[in-house]
Amino acid sequence: MPVKIIVDVHERQSGIAETLAELGADVEIASLPAGDYAVGADTLVERKRVLDLHAAILKGRLWPQLGKLRAACAFPYLLVEGTDIDRGPSTTTPSAAHAWR
Length: 101
What we know:
Blueprint lengths: L3 E5 L7 H7 L3 E5 L6 E3 L3 E7 H9 L3 H11 L2 E7 L12 H7 L1
């Protein structure tokens, strides 16, 4: 029996839903109240590319998002996608400097 994965409508452009379906998952696109992917009955996954993670931290969005994720399910996961996680957020760009204020 294939694994049922609900993919949030905002993740359609990522191409991940198609890849999951090609791998044999039963994929459905729907609006999720929290997270980007619902796997099984009580597991949610929030996917962040490294640069999006840095921006969410700088703008103060990450912790509220993770709190919402934790409140919505028993098994919350944060999936960080990318290879440059160790570089950390840049505070030298004008938008990043503004986020720290």
